[in-house]
Design goal:
By secondary structure, the chain is an alpha/beta fold. The protein contains five helices and five strands; from the N terminus they run βαβαβαβαβα. The longest helix is centred in the first third of the chain and has 14 residues, at 11-24. The chain is globular, with a radius of gyration of 13 Å.
């Protein structure tokens, strides 16, 4: 069973990602944090280690890239797979995600079925 942490500043996007994760793996343990600072606090306060982090790129306050850099700088967190999730199609954003240490880059599909398939593929790539 996977434990996935969704980090986003939009509760609706967290809900959609949760639905996609649960459709891909019914026994999944999904946790969420509203923003980068909240995610780092949760991760550092011993709230349990996720198998995978889905991290929104564009958030108010601490954005996804800043959050990812903090995760990669932390000896206890740096090896957790982090997937940047965004609606951006810009190649520059993909390169920035790679530079910040992202394991993968997932496009927020408008089509929920496609997003669910993409999520399922991620879970297979990063086993719990």
């Amino acid at each position: 069973m996977h434990t996935v942490l969704i980090v986003d500043d939009d509760p609706d996007d967290i809900e959609l990602a949760t639905i996609a994760l649960e459709a891909a793996e019914p026994d999944i343990n999904v946790r969420s944090a509203l923003g980068g600072s909240a995610a780092l606090a949760l991760l550092r306060d011993g709230g349990g280690r996720p198998d995978l982090i889905l991290l929104d790129m564009k958030m108010l306050g601490m954005n996804g890239f800043e959050t990812l850099r903090e995760i990669r700088a932390d000896l206890h967190l740096r090896d957790i797979p982090v997937v940047i999730v965004t609606s951006s199609d810009l190649e520059s954003d993909r390169k920035a995600a790679d530079s910040a240490g992202a394991n993968s880059f997932l496009h927020k599909a408008v089509n929920m079925e496609q997003f669910s398939r993409d999520i399922k593929s991620l879970l297979e790539r990063y086993p719990g």
